[in-house]
Amino acid sequence: MIERDYLMRMIAQLTAVLAKILFAKKSQNYAEALLLTQNAYEQLLGLNGELVEKMEAATLVLLLGEKEKIKALATLLQEEGEVLHLQGKFAESKAKYEKALALFQEALRRYTAGDTECETAIAALQSKLREGM
Question: Which pTM does this prediction carry?
Fold first, then answer.
């Protein structure tokens, strides 16, 4: 029960952060959007942004353990990739998209076969990467 409450609170916080990131993107305040993403790594998942960047997806999956945390990280990486893409930083954006894709795929494979949220995110990321963003 406590674990479920924690996850529900984390999901609510993630939703609030994503709304702020979306607003910052629409306002073309990309520095703010990236800062929000970095802060969310720490506040929601207890991860340093540099650590997220350096670690492979499989290691992050083991570190996070729970599917909702993995999906949260993947979502944040996807958003960060989007912001970097909007800034014209295509190589950095691609790296974020690839890691987000790998995390969603791991979450789907390990924990939630048939998770439409993961499947939709995977399809969108694969499409972006296939099209060269």
Answer: 0.90
